[in-house]
Amino acid sequence: MSVAAGPERPQVVSHVQQALNYTVFDCKWVPRSARLLCLGSAARGTGLIQLYELHGARLELLREIEKPKPIKCGTFGATSLQQRYLATGDFDGNLNVWNLEAPEIPVYSVKGHKEIINSIDGVGGLGIGEGAPEIVTGSRDGTVKVWDPRQNDTPVANMEPVQGESKRDCWTVAFGNAYNQEERVVCAGYDNGDIKLFDLKTMSLRWETNIKNGVCSVEFDRKDINMNKLVATSLEGKFHVFDMRTQHPTKGFASVSEKAQKSTIWQVRHLPQNRDIFMTSGGSGSLHLWKYEYPAQRLKKDSEGSEMGVAGSVSLLQNVTLSTQPISSLDWSPDKKGLCVCGAFDQTVRVLIVTKLNNI
Amino acid sequence: MPVWLREHSWRQTLGAVYLSLPLRGARATPANIFCSEQYLKVSIPPFLFEAILYAPIDDTNSTAKIGNGNIFFTLYKKEPAMWDSLTLANAGKEKLQYLRENAVLKAQEKAKEETEAKKIAKQEHKKCALEATMKLEEAQRKRIEDLKEKERQKVAKELEFWKNQQKDADKYKSVQKKGELHQEKEPLKERKNETMSKTRIPNEGTSKIRLKSTKGCHGSSSIFSQNLKEERLPAPRAAATIEVTFTPRVFPTALRESRVAEEEEWLHKQAEARRIINSDLSELEDLKEEEKNPDWLKDKGNKMFAMGNYLGAVNAYNLAVRLNNKLPLLYLNRAACHLKLRNLHKAIEDSSKALELLTPPVPDNKNARVKAHVRRGTAFCQLELYAEGLQDYEAALKIDPGNINIEKDAEKIRHLIQETMQSS
């Protein structure tokens, strides 16, 4: 694991820190703006959405919206740039899509799951990718469901355990491979270490593997291209980077894994402006910035002549410890390179700036 | 007896005495020379030269040069005066001795003082060095902090600039949005109100046209592009379900939940049990090879039990136990046989022994433990010890909560207990 030279390394500068009086579970930038959203749960058991704007060295609260159930996760992925509707999943299993200008009544609402929605992702909106806008939710009841905001009440795809099988919590979901109108893939990570890749065009399970420890977060490096890389992070400080360009019939995808932090790696997020740089956030309150290097040859033939991928290597660019509590959510701003927001369990949300990313 | 060196020659000036001492072939080192304020000694065994000087000299500055078989002393006088002779003339033995001792003492004291002074000087130097390094480090740290501050400020400035850009873009967009909304309404209205009188539309049309013209091509192209986009969006996917199975494990819990330690212990115990061979071979010599294998005997016993030959099964199990008394399944099966033969006490004994061997309790030996509890419970009940029987049934139910038969039997026993309590 090599480290870049001293003065040229990207620095993580903490720009603003905001103390909150509730537990923040997710934080997201509002696309095309200097505003960010914090989603969480207030002490009295209700859900909170707060909209902040970045003003110089502080965050100014623009709006606070309270909802009956605590909110676990949210995404802007499936809405257009003009509308910028927020899709949220809450502790009760409800999926709601809100118009932040008129948040009293959701634009779309469905009781999608019987238990908490742990993770949500959207694709087809924001001018990224092609095809219908869709939202995927993964829940503790073991199912992963894909919703289309134009179709009420029933999901367009449902990945559920076989009848009679004991269920495992689904902890994370991610969309990928949405490079044309038909292709789309959903990757789901479960608490027993299973990672499953579902192909929505053929409605089948395309690949599965088990990485032994519960999977906390999965993300493709880009949603809107032919699947290139997938990073999966897990408990006990390990993460795996899979090369998704070549699938071997039996061995699946090639991967490289790294054990970086001593505690759970809660989130991984790729830099929107450079798909080989990603940041992982850990249970010890630290952030690690990584760069993936491709191998000299991404393909090789095995003994029977079938192709298999070759995984590259990962190097640590920078690490910084910001808090004593886990940093549970992380989001890069799609508009300004290096600007990111992270929310930690010490009830603070921090805006960070990562410098010198242009030289990488 | 030392050999005295007496052939010295000397001359003097007002401030110094120059003494030359030939060494007669002996080699001298600085260690051989001893000099104090009024006493000078050169000792190169077996040669010896000694002089009580006429007047005190400054022994720290005086020098001795060794070379050419000669020592050349340059002694600086403490008081500049001409000496009558090099040494004190009438130096009595006692005075000599006293002077000698004095000289030695003085030398020692001087040495001590010197070491003290050296120590103090060293400490001072160390302190100095430490302070210097601390200053250097401070400077370094400050430099880094300054760099970081500069970065931060630069970045903050950039951010402000970008944010202002965003604000402007937003304002532009919000105005544009209003324009678009108007324009969207227009074609919709046109489509809907085709039947309506044409007079109304041109009026609205004119006011909107003005807006349209100001926004220009950009506005109109956006409606068209949006319409096109809506048409290009595919219909919602046909709903389908994908069935999912999860990775099976020997121990069906995730790594973090597994009780690996206990399960390892259980497996280890089983392995140990297999290896025991009771070496009571005297009686067993006339048995066939296969009859010495506890597993084969267990199978035999099972078959006989299935056919109803309970006594034969018990015999088979007995032999197996003699060969290997650590296999819990043997006791378990023998208990079943005893139940059928109504040897209830023996059945209880065997089930208890089986349960003992089935520790630690892990999911692997769940079934065996349930059976053991049920058999023991049945035996108790048949002995009319219903309370103990119920205990065993409840234990079995705790291990295997979903089993309906055990539930029913437990219920029956509870009824029986109530009846007996009522009747007595």
Automatic annotation (TrEMBL), chain A:
It comes from the Eukaryota. InterPro entries: WD40/YVTN_repeat-like_dom_sf, WD40_repeat_dom_sf, WD40_rpt. Coiled coil: none annotated. GO terms for cellular component: dynein axonemal particle. Pfam families: WD40. It is found in: Dynein axonemal particle. Its main location: other. WD repeats lie at residues 135-157. GO terms for biological process: apoptotic process. Keywords: Apoptosis, Cytoplasm, Repeat, WD repeat. Key assembly factor specifically required for the stability of axonemal dynein heavy chains in cytoplasm. PANTHER family: MRNA EXPORT FACTOR AND BUB3. This is Dynein axonemal assembly factor 10. The gene is Wdr92.
Automatic annotation (TrEMBL), chain B:
It comes from Mohoua ochrocephala. GO terms for molecular function: nuclear estrogen receptor binding. Keywords: Cell projection, Coiled coil, Cytoplasm, Neurogenesis, Nucleus, Repeat, TPR repeat. The keyword Repeat applies. Residues 3-87 form the CS domain. Residues 170-197 have a biased composition (Basic and acidic residues). InterPro entries: CS_dom (IPR007052), CS_DYX1C1 (IPR037894), Dynein_assembly_factor_4 (IPR052004), HSP20-like_chaperone (IPR008978), TPR-like_helical_dom_sf (IPR011990), TPR_rpt (IPR019734). The keyword Iron does not apply. It is found in: Cell projection, Neuron projection; Dynein axonemal particle; Nucleus. TPR repeats lie at residues 370-403. Its main location: other. Transmembrane segments: none annotated. Residues 104-154 form a coiled coil. This is Dynein axonemal assembly factor 4. GO terms for biological process: determination of left/right symmetry; epithelial cilium movement involved in extracellular fluid movement; heart development; inner dynein arm assembly; nervous system development; outer dynein arm assembly. GO terms for cellular component: dynein axonemal particle; extracellular region; neuron projection; nucleus. Pfam families: CS. Residues 170-199 are annotated as: Disordered. Gene3D superfamilies: 2.60.40.790, Tetratricopeptide repeat domain.
